[in-house]
Design goal:
The chain is mainly beta. It has helices at residues 3-9, 13-20; strands at residues 29-33, 39-43, 53-57, 65-72, 76-83, 91-100, 105-113, 116-124, 136-140, 145-151, 160-170, 180-184, 203-204. Strands 2, 3, 6, 7, 8, 11, 12 and 13 form an eight-stranded antiparallel beta sheet that branches. The chain binds calcium ion (CA).
Length: 206
Amino acid sequence: MNSFARRFAALAGAAALSAGLAAPAHAEQWARTDARGDVTSSTNCDAEGSSCTDTIDAAAKQPDVLRVVTTHTTDRVKVYARYAEMTSGGVRVHQFRVYTNEGVRRRLTVILDDGRVVYNQLDRDSGSKVACAGLRRSIDYGANTVALSIPRACLSNPRWVRVGFGSMIIRDVNDATRGYKSDDALRSGLSASTSDLVLGPRLSRG
Ligand SMILES: [Ca+2]
C-alpha cells in the first residue's frame, strides 16, 4: 500500500475504540447524505505524504461523496457511494472501513490507476493482508457510483458492524509532497489529517 493510502488507513487506535463504545441504534441499513463541496485538499506534504496543509476546496467535484448507503445482509457487508462527479483519470483510492462487535478492524482498499485496479485487498489496521475470497466491487463512471462489499465470513461473521468510507485522489504518485484530495463520506469538512474515517451506527445482520 502506498504512503497516501497508509496514511488514510492509519490513526485509528483509541479513537476507534471509544467510537466503538458509543454506537446508537441497530439497523440493517443506514444511509447518509454527505455535504456537497467539502472535499479536503492536502498540499505541501512531507516526502511520505504526511504533515500536509489541509484546506476545504469547495469547488472540487472530485472525489466529493454526496450519498452513502451501508448494508449488513445475511452474508455480506456493503457500502454504496454516489459522487458529485467521477472520472477514471489519475490515481484514486476508495477505502471501506469496518469495525465489528468482536473488535475486529478491517479495511478494504481499492486503488485505481487510470481506471485500472492496481490494489484490491482486505487488510488489518496494521496493513497486513487478510485472505478473503469473494470481495466485490462495482464502479460506474456514468452514474458516479462506487459499490464495495465484503463477505461476513471474512469478518468472523459479526453480530453487528460499524462502517466508514472515504475516497481520495492522489495528485502525483511520484511526488508525495504534492498531496491529494479526499472526502470522508460520513463527515462534513476537513478529514485528511485530523483522524481516521468516521464510523456509522451499528448495523445488525439483516
Ligand atoms: Ca461530500
